[in-house]
Amino acid sequence: QVQLVQSGAEVKKPGASVKVSCKASGYTFTRYYMHWVRQAPGQGLEWMGIINPSGSSTTYAQKFEGRVTMTRDTSTSTDYMELSSLRSEDTAVYYCARDNSAGSGWWFDPWGQGTLVTVSS
Amino acid sequence: SSELTQDPAVSVALGQTVRITCQGDSLRSYYASWYQQKPGQAPILVIYAKNNRPSGIPDRFSGSSSGNTASLTITGAQAEDEADYYCNSRDSSGDHWVFGGGTKLTVL
Fold first, then answer.
1. Using CB atoms and an 8 Å cut-off, which of residues 36-75 of chain B contact chain A?
2. Strand runs (DSSP E) across B8-102, as ranges?
3. How confident is the model at residue B2 (pLDDT cuts 50, 70, 90)?
4. Which of A40, A51, B51, B95 counts the highest number of beta carbons within 10 A?
């Protein structure tokens, strides 16, 4: 079955970087884009960005430009999201979600289980 | 601020019908997708491409769209439908995606 499995929880100090992984299985990895979404405690979902199937192109939400880097290792079917210059407001659950599209519709399915990143001194 | 606007909270009596709406200019060009999220869980897709349900989603969930408004309707709400619901679409520029602020559904 199609599945996304993310890396485990992280605790980081302010100013540090974190790299979250998302390993895909059950489908042809190089045929699909991947999104990253985060959710701060008690808050809504926030789109962070997307990486293309080959890993050669990314688009980031303006809010994260300059701080986020999304990469892909096609040999292991794994996507990565690295966020730098962490601050307390970056404490959140980070999700990867596969992109799907048809006509004028796009949707996220499936989702990874989420990775909690805690930023604390 | 989100480019997609949802009511923060909606309630429905058990077995009744409820509609959750999502407004935004980009919905005139792109279909919304809808996600259900229960506490401590990852979101799951419930409606995509206007009114399509993934396998495993009950047929009491349906979607519709008119102008700048997309709607998720639950016909005969069940206790297990109590959750947060989020809409999503591409933004007005078409270059990014955006989520609505979410609607907390309470089943009374």
1. 37, 42-45, 48-50, 54
2. 9-12, 18-23, 33-37, 44-47, 61-66, 69-74, 83-90, 97-99
3. low
4. A51
Residue B1 reports pLDDT greater than 50: no
Q: What mean pLDDT comes out for the span A51-74?
A: 97
Q: For residue B90, give the nearest of A37, A106, A112 by CB distance.
A: A106
Q: Which of A46, A62, A108 sits opposite B33 (nearest CB)?
A: A108
What is the signed CA dihedral for B9, B21, B43, A115, rounded to 10 degrees?
A: -70
- pLDDT > 50? residue A16: yes
Q: What is the mean pLDDT of chain B?
A: 95
| Band (A48; pLDDT cuts 50, 70, 90) | very high
